[in-house]
Amino acid sequence: MSVPPHIATFIFRAVYGISFAMEKPQIRFIEAIPYEKDGKELVILRDTEGIAREALAVSRDVAFMISLMDGTNTLQDIQTAFMRASGQTVYMEQIEGLVKALDQNLFLYNDRYTAHVKALYDDYDRLPVRPAYLAGKSYSASRIDLLSFLSGMFNGHAHAADAPGDISGILAPHIDYSRGALVYRAIYPYLKDAPKPLLVIFGTCHHPTQGLWSISLKDFATPLETVPVGPGLKELIRANSFLSRYIEEWPHRNEHSIELQLPLIQFMMQGDFEILPILTGSMHEFIEGSKSIDDDDEVRQLTESLKHVLDTYGKPYCIIAGADLAHIGAQFGDRYALDAVTLEGSRKKDELLLGHVRNVDADAFFREIKEEGDRRRICGLTPIFFQLKLLKGSRADIVDYHQWTDGQSSVSFAGGFFCRK
Fold first, then answer.
1. Are 234 and 353 in contact (CB under 8 A)?
2. In the listed set 73, 98, 121, which residue is the last one of a domain according to the structure?
3. Each residue of 257-288: pLDDT tens digit?
4. Looking at the 3D structure of the chain, how many domains does it have?
5. Contact criterion met (CB below 8 Å) for 203 and 289
6. pLDDT tens-place string over residues 15-26
7. Residue 259 belongs to what domain range?
8. Contacts of 73 (CB under 8 A, 6+ apart)
9. Same domain as 178, residue 97
């Protein structure tokens, strides 16, 4: 099995034994989170793809030096640029030591990283079932303990108010259970009295993908049981000339936005069910204007092809989006104060977005975010957009909304349901 193009593209030579001064290190796409400890300003470097399992804490000076490692600068270039910008002396041995540490932790694009990823990719490709990546991390790996936790989360909230029709969709967060519990328990009981044999689950992919969709045809394991993708549905997607191009398993390996929905669904659903997991990529080409959402053939064909497959498959289905809203504050790179006025302003903008969800208007939802330049980083943009496209003609309501904040950063999210008119 060959390595996907977006991984193979980044191969470059990094051969030990050759002087580090001859190399041009290239940092991978990583998350940089400001952090303060004992009065010192640090930056936490975290690999969102989960290839590097350990995060690194570095000073702001070191973080700046790492930012210069773009694959074009030699170590001499980095040394010169750093000393010009900071006025501080940095020795070549220090830069070489930093590059070695980054390489050992798989934070650099080089042959060592590529070989490691290829081995992981091939191993994952051979698995018939996606393992529960977050079990033992974000929730208990023990079936009994997980059921106990979910019982506590939904205690007294196991039944929802009567919906005004047949449930056709659910909008849920994908934030961790501890922060999202209030909204999760407000929305998921709507599934209990409206079971569907097929759940199409859209989730945000938090790292780069090859296309707008990454469809998984693997069954998904949880500590409760394994949830299947129906064999007949797999055949229909593989046979569809358009959707078959979007079968991409690798992005699902450690992505949380779909996985976190499954134990909640399993706890609520009364009968057996199948899933179709679809991770969605970035729409920033549309936000920035290099592509037009109104004229894009990919958006139209994705929507129409999936509708055709689902209609052919014939099982009643529900479309779920695991999607958060705004991400603002220091953790996400904002330099403004996260005060009550800022939070209220963000809440009002969220309400405009949720108004378009209530109207099941995908295009208006997208335009609202585009007009804002997506400055609040609506990470649920793509899954919600396609959910609204596929559920056009339904009616919807928002049952809960929450802004989580620690005083420096904030994430907002909502729970809603869709009904066929």
1. no
2. 121
3. 999 999 999 999 988 999 999 999 999 999 99
4. 2
5. no
6. 333 344 347 999
7. 129-420
8. 24, 81
9. no
